[in-house]
Design goal:
Blueprint (H helix, E strand, L loop, with lengths): L2 H21 L6 H23 L8 H22 L6 H28 L1
């Protein structure tokens, strides 16, 4: 993974936290966004580590994206649950959609642009 990968993944997760806070009128101050997003940021980092263990012949942009997205979601929700934060089904479904589309989506766009070049 490149530095760009890490930055874009972090941006996706932070925008997810920002949007969630904004939609629930919780304020969008940077510390509040970090407070909301930290479980998913930890999960994203776990995903980066897990993706590094995928054997080279199997590595691809989409598999990397799925590994990072699933890790961000599962670890993030487990951390939220362990802290007594909400993990209601509608939130889990929205988080699943946003994280998968965001973390796999930017990779898909990048892969498509690379093929065109």
């Amino acid at each position: 993974m490149t530095r760009r990968t890490y930055v874009l993944d972090l941006l996706v997760v932070l925008l997810f936290a920002l949007a969630g806070r904004a939609s629930h009128d919780r304020g969008v101050d940077p510390l509040g966004v970090l407070e909301t997003g930290w479980p998913f940021l930890v999960g994203t980092a776990v995903g980066w580590i897990a993706a590094a263990f995928v054997p080279r012949p199997m590595r691809s942009w989409w598999l990397e994206g799925i590994v990072v997205a699933v890790s961000a979601l599962v670890v993030g929700m487990l951390l939220r649950w362990s802290m007594g934060e909400g993990t209601a089904l509608p939130f889990v479904l929205v988080a699943t959609g946003v994280l998968v589309v965001g973390l796999v989506g930017w990779r898909a766009v990048e892969a498509a642009l690379a093929r065109r070049a």
